[in-house]
């Protein structure tokens, strides 16, 4: 019984906070819309900065931040854009293919489009329905669908799982 419960909790923890790859692929094919109070462009360094009330939408993805910096690497470098969002906190929301929402927050969010690696730093949280993970740093490898959360030495990683929501995996 204890082994079955442990397995259920492990599976639940992973499914509760892992982002659906198919939802991400569908959303990432949609147009990106960015609205902010201010925008600046540094053409020499290929950096665009959006500040004050930044709202980014792409498919079902909604991101709100105080500041977003998009850096484009030099041509023929083989690298892709990076996105850094700052806020108190930066928040994001995405509706997965199964209809369940995923919400997150952090003081800083870094996303490397080339490696498809997401890092949430400072007061980081990922939440699906009432299940959630809180930590100092949460990383997510989109390609491998691997999540890692770490504390900061003062606070530990905290996970809350709601068993009834885990059992109703296919329901909204």
From TrEMBL:
Output the InterPro entries linked to this UniProt entry. Answer: LPS_export_LptA (IPR052037), LptA (IPR014340), OstA-like_N (IPR005653)
Q: Does the keyword Transport apply?
A: yes
Q: Which GO MF term does the entry hold, naming one? A: glycolipid transfer activity
Keyword RNA-binding assigned to the entry: answer is no
Cell location: Periplasm
Database matches in Gene3D superfamilies: Lipopolysaccharide (LPS) transport protein A like domain
GO CC list: cell outer membrane; outer membrane-bounded periplasmic space
Q: What is its main location?
A: periplasm
Q: Where is the signal peptide?
A: 1-23
Q: Can you give the residue ranges of the Organic solvent tolerance-like N-terminal domain?
A: 33-145
Q: Name one GO biological process term.
A: lipopolysaccharide transport
Alphabetically sorted, this entry's keywords are: Periplasm, Signal, Transport
Query: What does this chain do?
Result: Involved in the assembly of lipopolysaccharide (LPS). Required for the translocation of LPS from the inner membrane to the outer membrane. May form a bridge between the inner membrane and the outer membrane, via interactions with LptC and LptD, thereby facilitating LPS transfer across the periplasm.
- Quote the NCBIfam families the UniProt record gives: outer_YhbN_LptA
Q: How does it assemble?
A: Component of the lipopolysaccharide transport and assembly complex.
Similarity comment: family membership: Belongs to the LptA family.
**Name by which UniProt lists this protein:** Lipopolysaccharide export system protein LptA
Q: Which species expresses this protein natively?
A: Haemophilus pittmaniae HK 85
